[in-house]
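Here is the promised in-class demo. Please do not try to memorize the tokens; focus on the logic of going from shape to residues.
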């Protein structure tokens, strides 16, 4: 038996064993993203009685080692010639370390990049607290060596969109 055959056989066994957890985690992440995008959509609709803003939701193919390949939701908000895309990034955000109000350092439980059409520097990230997703926004490119963030509320979403859709 060749090296490639043996490697693929071992990978298949590993993949089959990890598959239920990967699928469960991908479904949980997909659900959290849909809830975030539902909130943003509702906030826009409340503010936009004239229907000036277009909202498009689609899916994007995504891969993370701990999720495998999956389809994740993505959302685009358009006003005239301006477009803001909420692009899901990683569920396991090893590159996004947060220091909470208690001074504890931890990784975010997933994040979304805000693109317009290039990176705006804004990241919307999730922390799971007491089993509930709470979303926060890291504004712009921030300050060197210091990550500033605040809760992602309707007010924060409106400020973000006004700043990026101008």
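The designed amino acids, position by position:
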């Amino acid at each position: 038996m060749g090296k490639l055959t043996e490697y693929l056989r071992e990978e298949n066994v590993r993949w089959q064993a990890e598959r239920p957890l990967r699928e469960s985690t991908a479904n949980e992440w997909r659900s959290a993203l849909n809830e975030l995008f539902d909130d943003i959509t509702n906030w826009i609709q409340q503010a936009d009685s004239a229907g000036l803003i277009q909202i498009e939701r689609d899916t994007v193919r995504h891969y993370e080692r701990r999720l495998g390949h999956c389809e994740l939701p993505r959302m685009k908000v358009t006003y005239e010639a301006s477009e803001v895309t909420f692009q899901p990034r990683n569920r396991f955000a090893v590159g996004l370390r947060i220091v909470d109000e208690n001074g504890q350092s931890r990784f975010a439980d997933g994040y979304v990049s805000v693109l317009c059409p290039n990176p705006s520097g804004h990241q919307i990230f999730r922390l799971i607290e007491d089993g509930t997703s709470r979303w926060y926004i890291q504004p712009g490119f921030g300050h060197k060596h210091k990550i500033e963030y605040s809760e992602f509320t309707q007010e924060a979403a409106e400020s973000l969109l006004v700043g990026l859709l101008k």
